[in-house]
């Protein structure tokens, strides 16, 4: 150690006392629990001719875990040494006299070995960013962060075990049932999943009007409540109907049906109620998040508002509160009920293209819903004034019902020569 000190321009003094001065130490990272096991080494500058350097001192100390170093110069030196003087008194108990020595305060800071840093750095650079963050949490993280880290690692092990178990189970099922059976089961699951969003379908019905029963779409209490708002449609004159497209207050399907209202008062009232409810359903589908208890306004009967909120919205949790949301599946359900009601209005044959545009859907989405409802799809020219020069898709509900094959199934593979 003395040779290293000489090479660096420092002389080894051996102990904590420097001639007629004493050294006081303060550890920056805590207090000493046992000072008897501490060994100190003092280094003094050999440049005695330079007045600025001849008083420089370096004090070192070692414990089982860390090495410490302190000095009386540079940025790490304590400024209090230059602002005041410290003294240490040594009392001789036999003579009762005290000797007073000049004292200097040193701030001892932990010293990290350069070799350790280089060894750790080589391993550190090979780690991923996630592993580096985890290492920092292990070393310096709070108890909460360490618990979260342990929990994540346990979940990761659990997920790997679960994935292996699922893979083995899938292999066993494929080996036992075969691919063809599994594809058939998946298709049946698709049929059952689609049926959750469709009106109740009575396949054993003897007439088209009993397949999707009217009372499953509108209850008797709801039908009575529709009388007041539907009166505005019942009393429309031919001139007022022609002006409605300019107002854009009603959807295209409703406007077309208003042109052929029955003369009979009872039939006219029935159709007006159905059209008003259908128009309300279509407008309700345009919404995303429902923030009001009466989403369709005060003119809509309370029982209808309640039906819309209960049957055609999904509950979601957002920003600390529960909200009603019209999700993609709920919009599909609204579309299915609109199609079923339109079939009752128009003698079980409807212009799907017209409804698709009113619902603001893609054609494939509308056709998928129509096929799921067992409609027979045909193509012909549209009605006059509404794209008469282009082909429209029409849906017809008739017996016997065609079988439903969900889209998205496996395509036929071409044979390789």
UniProtKB/TrEMBL annotation:
Which compartments does it reside in?
A: Nucleus, Nucleolus
Which family, according to the similarity comment? Belongs to the eukaryotic RPA49/POLR1E RNA polymerase subunit family.
Matching entries from InterPro entries are given as:
RNA_pol-assoc_fac_A49-like
Superkingdom assignment: Eukaryota
| Gene Ontology biological-process entries | DNA-templated transcription
Alphabetical UniProt keywords: DNA-directed RNA polymerase, Nucleus, Transcription
Name the UniProt record assigns to this protein = DNA-directed RNA polymerase I subunit RPA49
Q: Where is this region: Disordered?
A: 394-417
Species the sequence originates in: Alligator mississippiensis (American alligator)
Recorded GO MF terms: DNA binding
Q: Name one GO cellular component term.
A: nucleolus
Which is a Pfam family this sequence falls into? RNA_pol_I_A49
